[in-house]
Amino acid sequence: MTLVAVSKTKPTDVIEEAFEAGQLAFGENYAQEAIDKAAAITGAKVKWHFIGPVQSNKTRALAAGMDWIHTVDRPKIALRLNEQRPNNMLPLNVCVQVNISREPSKAGLLPEDLNDFLPLFDDLPNLRVRGLMAIPAPASTVAAQRQPFRELRQLFESSKANYPALDTLSMGMSADLEAAVAEGATMVRIGTDIFGPR
User: Fold this and answer.
1) pLDDT tens across 48-92, in order?
2) Residue 72 in contact with residue 52, Cβ under 8 Å?
3) Are β-strands 2-6 and 68-72 bridged in parallel, bridged antiparallel, or unpaired?
């Protein structure tokens, strides 16, 4: 299990304090903030995860500055990230964002579109597709929280039949952490419970 400490809006000294305490993975939602912080806090052990929407005009900076991008859901974005990842860097780790709750206002592929989307990565050598990510609709009970995470896990397991290298289920935030872990999350994205309210 990997804990991604979501540090958006938090100053670098707070992030450095967390790093000194042993936290290695940090997540950011805004491209420019992510790039600035990654440039300020460097080191082989620090891993930067971008977990916000990827805009076309930010792909070059993100491709060069991030270790992970969790929100790939369009061919155009995947192609740009692949093209713009520097050749002297390891492939960029990516997760495909799935709109598991089918919310019209949410980003992400619909579950039924995933099988057609994954083959795109076969021809993108500068990207390494690692797994799936989702931000389900809020729910008031743990049982209700678990249902979309269970659906994402089932989708992940069925995808592994053709893509056995998939190893990451990025799901769960401060409000639904327990439900995500119970359904098999391998990576959780926690902000408030680590850094406090924004």
Assistant:
1) 999 999 999 999 999 999 999 999 999 999 999 999 999 999 999
2) no
3) unpaired
Strand partners, 26: 5, 48
Query: Looking at this protein, which amino acid is placed at residue 95?
Result: C
State what percent of residues in the chain have pLDDT above 90: 96
pLDDT at 146: 98
* Residue extents of the structural domains in the chain: 2-195
The CATH class that applies to domain 2-195 reads: alpha beta
Q: What is the DSSP string of 162-180?
A: T-TT--EEE---TTTHHHH
Residue with tokens 């936290």: 23
Judged on CB neighbours under 10 Å (0-12, 13-18, 19+), 70 is buried
What's the burial of 126, exposed, middle or buried (CB within 10 Å: 0-12/13-18/19+)?
middle
